[in-house]
């Protein structure tokens, strides 16, 4: 996918996820979550091509501007949206699938100092509510939802709702309507 098509896809994604979005121009101009994702793509390219220090400097500068810290080593899928992103932290070995949405204050962090995989893997179509913490090399199954302020430290299957501290998965079916208050 060429860069212009990717930018258009990002703008459509933001409009789909945020009912307050009035135009693509407004999103491109003022949405810090979109800016952080765009900067991450550049920093991730630098990181994967061995230009690590400039990638880290770029990620820290983006953090200064947006309040969103995405390590340049993290892998982010398509149509990723961060709503009201202040305080979002995504660690170096985190893997985020396609069609994922994060709210403010989410941490995809580690819980050890070991080398290797130490951050979460988030499946496609996952929504993670405000203030939630997903810690360690855990996997969140596709189409799952993590409630606001939940603390996830164990793997969860697909199609589950994770709530509580520590979070416990509850199965959600295709006919389940999730209350938006779980996420904000």
Strand order of the largest sheet: 3-6-9-12-14-15
Structural class: alpha/beta
User: Uncertain segments of ≥5 residues (pLDDT<50)?
Assistant: none
Mean pLDDT, to the nearest integer, reads 93
- The span between the termini is 33 Å
Task: Work out the radius of gyration.
Answer: 16 Å
Binned, the helix content reads: 25-40%
Order of helices and strands: HHHHEEEEEEEEEEEEEEE
The total strand number stands at 15
Described by strand count, sense and barrel closure, the largest sheet is:
6 strands, mixed
The 3D shape can be described as globular
% residues in beta strands: 15-25%
By oligomeric state, this entry counts as single chain
Number of helices: 4
Explain what the structure shows.
- The protein is α/β, with parallel strands linked by helices and 184 residues long.
- The protein is built from four helices and 15 strands.
- A hairpin with a 4-residue loop joins β14 and β15.
- The longest helix is centred in the first third of the chain and has 17 residues, at 32-48.
- The N and C termini lie far apart (33 Å).
- The mean pLDDT is 93.
């Amino acid at each position: 996918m060429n860069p212009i098509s990717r930018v258009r896809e990002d703008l459509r994604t933001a409009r789909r996820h945020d009912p307050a979005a009035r135009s693509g121009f407004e999103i491109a101009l003022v949405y810090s979550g979109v800016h952080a994702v765009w900067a991450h793509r550049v920093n991730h390219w630098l990181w994967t091509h061995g230009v690590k220090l400039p990638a880290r400097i770029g990620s820290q500068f983006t953090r200064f501007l947006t309040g969103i810290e995405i390590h340049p080593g993290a892998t982010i899928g398509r149509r990723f949206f961060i709503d009201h992103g202040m305080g979002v932290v995504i660690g170096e070995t985190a893997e985020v699938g396609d069609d994922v949405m994060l709210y403010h204050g989410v941490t995809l962090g580690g819980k050890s100092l070991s080398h290797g995989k130490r951050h979460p893997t988030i499946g496609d179509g996952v929504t993670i509510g405000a203030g939630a913490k997903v810690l360690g090399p855990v996997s969140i199954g596709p189409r799952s939802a993590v409630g606001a302020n939940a603390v996830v430290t164990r793997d969860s299957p697909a199609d589950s709702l994770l709530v509580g501290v520590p979070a416990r998965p509850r199965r959600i079916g295709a006919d389940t309507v999730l209350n938006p208050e779980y996420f904000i």
